[in-house]
Design goal:
Elements lengths: L6 E4 L2 E4 L3 H4 L4 H11 L5 H9 L3 E4 L2 E4 L17 E5 L3 E6 L16 H12 L6 E2 L9 E6 L2 H12 L4 E9 L8 E3 L2 E3 L7 E3 L7 E9 L3 E8 L6 H8 L22 E9 L6 E5 L4 H12 L5
Antiparallel strand pairs: 1-2, 2-4, 3-4, 5-6, 6-8, 7-8, 9-14, 9-15, 10-13, 11-12, 13-14, 15-16
Length: about 300
Amino acid sequence: MSYQGNWTRRGEWLELMPGKALLSLPDRDEAVYQWLVDSLGMPEKYVRKLRHHKAVQWKADRLRLGIFPSVEAGIEPRWSDLEVLYEDDFCLVVNKPPGMAVHPDDHSNELTLNHAVAAYYESTGVQSAVRHVHRLDKDTTGPVLYAKNEYAQLKLDEAMRHKQIVRIYAAIVQGRVARNLKVIDLPIGRDRHHGQRRRVSLSGQHAVTRILSMEVYKEASLLYLSLETGRTHQIRVHLSHLGHAILGDSLYGGYAVAFQQQALHGARLVFRHPLTGEEINVEAPWPQDLLELKEKVQSKPLLT
């Protein structure tokens, strides 16, 4: 469900032209309610909220929706340079650097990506809550998607639940991966002997990782992977269990290399725009040190 017509943002209002058919109906308000649910995919609860706040209005033949209210970021703005990969009134995609968590935990005052996004919003005049749609591990680089209003968050969260947001990762792993390995379907649970680790466990949660393509070198392999499920450390656990731990991933047995974190990067993010349904395809540039590691494993033994 998406909107194919012209749209304009005017302050807190989204202006649409749903067509003359709605204007001519005897119970236009009820028709609009149904159109928002059926055509825009708005949850009924959210449409009722808009109506309660008088945020559904007509201006001549234009339907106005108050979906861009000014709201607090919900987190302290703390400046850090951000690489913005995509942005419009509904979505923001930023390239997360290594060593930065997406959101804060209860035990640390470290700068996180959400702090930096709040500062970015503040500097660019965006009055929106910071709403990340998915996460990356602290030491994994790549694109993170943010919803800039509640409607976008509802649509993108639904897309995540239905596995309609595609995240493709690049991983440099130890050993020569068999070319016929296409799917890793192994359940993942907690490691009782290590609070931070996960492990393959028959009693764990269903977890599926797909290998889309690979390059096999003398002592290492470059894999492009996608996730069907989003378990904690899923790619790292699956590959380590098969004897192909990610280089630099000391938690899961990866060889130590001249690299500051595990060699895992979110290479691409593909999602449908929450309003128009247009496919948005975002590629994230590789960090320079990861490019250098790739060149090294292509030409030299790992342990020299």
